[in-house]
Design brief:
The protein is of the alpha/beta class. The protein has a single domain, classed as Dihydrofolate Reductase, subunit A (3-Layer(aba) Sandwich). The chain has four helices and twelve strands. The strands form three sheets. Strands 7-6-5-8-1-9-12-11 form an eight-stranded mixed β-sheet, with helices on both faces. A two-stranded antiparallel sheet has the order 2-10. A hairpin with a 7-residue loop joins β3 and β4. It is globular and about 40 Å long. The relative contact order is 0.25. It holds the Pfam family RibD_C.
């Protein structure tokens, strides 16, 4: 079974979006370099960010996101982002009316059920959990193996927190990766068990 990774770009003060669910400059590092990150030609990063991010993206089999992210992105038009095979959506509501049942999206009630479904679909590959409320729920439930953050030099002051509404202490190991890119600092921590 692959590892479970909580991941997002994040402001220095710990937010993945502002009060209006907007990421602001959090993704600017994805277009601020000269090395194409994917076939679209839109995403261009520094060489250091490419070497780190491309390898990680290639390991991801399934992404878990909350219904809020799904709705904000219009379900990525039924196509999982970044070439990922499947998306598991944590929600108490059914798929939207008219949703293509053949799209590789799975609507699951509860974080434990979502991680179980994602691991089944991912096999040996990484299960990525979008940071925020869903990621925080998974961390609090002891389901996260690793935390990855792309820290961007901006302060939001308020908004959607990287760790959601986690209110208990969770220890991480010392960082395994501390890597500087253009306008981003990539960090990776194992969760202490």
């Amino acid at each position: 079974m692959g590892k479970v990774v909580m991941y997002s770009s994040v402001s220095v003060d710990g937010f993945v979006a502002d009060e209006n669910d907007q990421p602001g400059p959090l993704f600017d590092w994805l277009t601020g370099g000269d090395v194409p990150l994917d076939e679209s030609g839109v995403l261009k990063v520094s060489r250091a960010s490419y070497d780190y991010t491309r390898q990680y993206w290639d390991e991801i089999g399934v992404t878990i996101a909350g219904r809020r992210v799904f709705d904000l992105t219009d379900g990525w038009d039924g196509k999982p982002p970044s070439g990922i095979d499947h998306v598991v959506v944590v929600t108490h509501r059914p798929a939207p009316e008219g949703w293509d049942p053949g799209a590789p999206f799975h609507f699951v009630d509860g974080i434990e059920a979502a991680v179980a479904k994602a691991q089944e679909l991912a096999g040996d590959r990484v299960v990525e959990i979008a940071a925020g409320d869903v990621g925080g729920q998974a961390l609090a439930a002891g389901l996260v193996d690793e935390v990855r953050m792309d820290v961007v030099p901006v302060v939001f002051g308020s908004g959607r927190r990287f760790f959601g509404s986690v209110h208990a202490q969770h220890l991480l190991e010392d960082p395994e990766v501390v890597l500087q890119g253009n306008r981003v600092l990539h960090l990776r921590y194992r969760v202490r068990r």
